[in-house]
Specification:
- There is one protein chain.
- Helix content is 25%, strand content 41%.
- The protein has one domain: Hypothetical Protein Pfu-838710-001 (Beta Barrel).
- It has a nine-stranded antiparallel sheet with strand order 5-4-3-2-6-7-8-1-9.
- By secondary structure, the protein is of the alpha+beta class.
- It has six helices and nine strands.
- Strand 7 and strand 8 form a beta hairpin.
């Protein structure tokens, strides 16, 4: 990708292989504010990938809730100001995540509707994304729930997931994110009050 292609998609650097893989090992931490984390990331030499991004996730399912019953989520994500659109499916395992870029949100929504899928939830968040070594770190503000940091890595190797979990938690600890700050609920679960 050229610099102008990256900028068109709202990217500040090339993502390389950071979002390549069928599995995403992720840990989420609730923090009082994001400024201390940003300072630690800057000091560690993290590369900003996206800043001042607003993401809106549109969750879809069949009318009978078949995806939810199978432990899966089908999501369209619209990003502003870049206009970038992602389609991803999470589940059924907690670490399973497959995604692809799409050219147009409205067309994707129409395609899903024509197949019988219905929008079931919608969630917006402010998000900055950084890269530090093999990890991608997201700094989120999700109203009314607060500020969160996600430390994650993607891989195609299912056998490596336990090892990556240890590495993700070690990186979180280096950033001052402790186990008592960890949140296991997804933002969607928070929204539902689960």
């Amino acid at each position: 990708m050229t610099g102008s292609d990256l900028a068109t998609k709202g990217m500040l650097c090339d993502p390389g292989d950071h979002f390549t893989g069928r599995f995403e090992v992720e840990r989420k931490y609730k923090v009082p504010d994001l400024s201390a984390i940003k300072a630690k990331l800057d000091a560690a030499g993290a590369k900003p990938f996206m800043k001042d991004n607003v993401e809106t996730d549109y969750f879809y399912d069949t009318p009978d809730g078949a995806l939810n019953a199978a432990g899966k989520q089908l999501v369209l994500r619209a990003m502003a100001p870049s206009g970038r659109v992602l389609w991803f499916v999470k589940g059924p395992s907690a670490d399973e995540c497959v995604s692809t870029d799409l050219p147009d949100l409205t067309a994707a929504q129409q395609l899903l509707a024509s197949l019988g899928y219905q929008e079931t939830d919608r969630l917006s968040k402010a998000r900055d994304v950084y890269f530090l070594k093999e990890f991608h770190l997201t700094l989120d503000i999700v109203k009314p729930f607060g500020s969160f940091v996600e430390v994650a890595v993607m891989t195609d190797d299912a056998d490596s997931l336990p090892n990556w979990a240890v590495k993700v938690e070690a990186m979180a600890e280096k950033l001052g994110l402790t186990p008592d700050m960890q949140v296991t609920q997804s933002y969607r679960q928070m929204m539902a009050g689960d």
